[in-house]
Specification:
Layout lengths: L7 H6 L6 H10 L7 H13 L2 H17 L1 E2 L6 E2 L16 E5 L2 H10 L5 E4 L18 H10 L3 E4 L5 H14 L5 E4 L15 H9 L2 E2 H6 L1
Parallel strand pairs: 3-4, 3-5, 5-6
Antiparallel strand pairs: 1-2, 6-7
Helix pairs in contact: 2-3, 5-8
């Protein structure tokens, strides 16, 4: 018996399609983060099994989301209106701002149900090696917001790595003369980790046990 070796990577890379429409759909799904050709094919075949109305509804929702979604003019979170539902919520403490890197971090913190203030999304963190400087982030808008809204506390909830610490240090220096308490989440999040992957209990405790930035930076 002759055993033919099966190489998954080569097989998928050279995957043969009987339909160019199917192939194009698979290629588009495979562009999504964390989705390989095999998973993309499974998704496309699943859609093919659905009735036409279901598939059309799926595509319409994606197209509408991309066309109509907005970014909050205050915190830069995704929103259906000019001001997001978090900023517009009068039950939240409007004088506490939690500074995060991206929208995924807002979702992670909201899932802990341990924070009742507002957010400010920087859109990244300072990383010279990646060509990301302060001017490319929502730092100046944050400073203006603190001054305008008389913010009482600024909580840094950035991923605990060199880039995150650099960003904290930079912003702290820019607002050190403002009458605003500056804190950061506790070290319950391992150094070098990503905030969005922390479990809800650890992230919630890190928020509750936040510390002054001066103590954090000194460590």
């Amino acid at each position: 018996m002759i055993i033919v070796p099966f190489r998954v990577g080569v097989y998928l890379y050279n995957m043969q399609f009987s339909s160019s429409l199917l192939e194009n759909a698979v290629n588009e799904f495979a562009k999504l983060p964390g989705i390989g050709k095999k998973t993309a094919l499974r998704m496309v075949l699943h859609l093919l099994k659905q009735d036409e109305a279901t598939t059309e509804n799926f595509s319409e929702i994606i197209a509408r989301m991309r066309k109509e979604i907005k970014f909050c003019q205050r915190c830069f979170n995704v929103s259906d209106a000019d001001i997001c539902s978090i900023c517009a919520n009068s039950m939240r403490n409007q004088r506490i701002i939690c500074v995060v890197e991206n929208i995924r971090d807002v979702i992670a913190i909201e899932n802990t149900q341990q924070f009742s203030g507002t957010y400010h999304i920087l859109g990244g963190i300072i990383s010279p090696l990646d060509g990301i400087g302060p001017d490319q982030l929502q730092i100046e808008s944050l400073i203006q917001r603190i001054q305008k809204e008389q913010t009482e506390e600024l909580i840094f909830a950035l991923s605990p790595n060199i880039q995150g610490d650099t960003t904290i240090y930079y912003i702290q220096k820019k607002i050190q003369n403002l009458n605003c308490r500056i804190t950061t989440i506790a070290r319950g999040i391992a150094f070098g980790g990503e905030l969005e992957y922390a479990d809800e209990l650890t992230l919630g405790r890190s928020l509750q046990n936040r510390m002054p930035v001066d103590r954090y930076i000194s460590h």
